[in-house]
Amino acid sequence: MTEDQIINLLSSNLIYILLAFLLFLVIFKGIKIVPQSEQHVVERFGRLRSVLGPGINFIVPFLDVVRHKISILERQLPNASQDAITKDNVLVQVETSVFYRITQPEKTVYRIRDVDAAIATTVAGIVRAEIGKMDLDDVQANRNQLISTIKILVESAVDDWGIEVTRAEILDVNLDQATRDAMLQQLNAERARRAQVTEAEGQRRAVELAADAELYAAQKAAEARRVEADAEAYATGVVAKAIADNGLEAAQYQVALKQVESLNALGQGPSSSTVLVPAQALEAFGNAFNMLKGKS
């Protein structure tokens, strides 16, 4: 085909070409494909029309316009540090981190300009208020409870912005050097007190054990004395029974026999060369022999 023929062909079919182009443009403007991680806010004449979810969406060409493309992925605010004063007047520096995601883009777009700055300011105020209600020891010991409380309060505060707070973390609680030194002194004093208490308890236990040992020894000595007394009582009973059975002579015989044994022991002493025997002793010998004869 010559150039003139091509021009004539285009001139005769110009209307069809324009209609095809217009149809392509309408289709291009009317069909919107939204990624899975986004939501699109559509306006018509400057007013909110709809929010397009992931997938293929249809809008009115040339009337509806996608003004905002909002990511619904979870986001993390930069770590922030803020000063706070505890209930017992201790200055602490709290480092926090917040994770959130946008659930209602139409609220986020039309109700707040800088989402990150607004959430950071809200978190800082809530952290200061909550730590101001707690002592320093409670802040350290109940960190999980404090995190849960902060998360609930932040969620309530940002609900009107179409935002969901997924996590709120307290990364660290730092103290100034003066407070650290005071806490170290307190810790050392507590350790010294515990050592003294442990030593005192050990001494008390030693005294208790010694007293128990003395009591045990006294009990055993008393038992021994009781056994000796029982033996003496038994011997006395035997002697008394013999006297009751054989009369007074049996007792005199026992006394005379003891006297003879005593003299015998005195005579066998290593330093005794001469032994003076009193007349009563000789009498005892005689009585003993007479009793023996009487017995035989």
Automatic annotation (TrEMBL):
UniProtKB keywords: Membrane, Transmembrane, Transmembrane helix
Subcellular location: Membrane
Membrane in keyword set: yes
Domain of life: Bacteria
InterPro entries assigned to the protein according to its UniProt record, in alphabetical order: Band7/mec-2_domain (IPR050710), Band_7 (IPR001107), Band_7/SPFH_dom_sf (IPR036013), Stomatin_HflK_fam (IPR001972)
Transmembrane segments: 6-28
Domain (Band) ranges: 29-187
Location (main, coarse): membrane
Record carries keyword rRNA processing: no
Membrane topology of the entry: Single-pass membrane protein
Protein name as it appears in the record: SPFH domain-containing protein
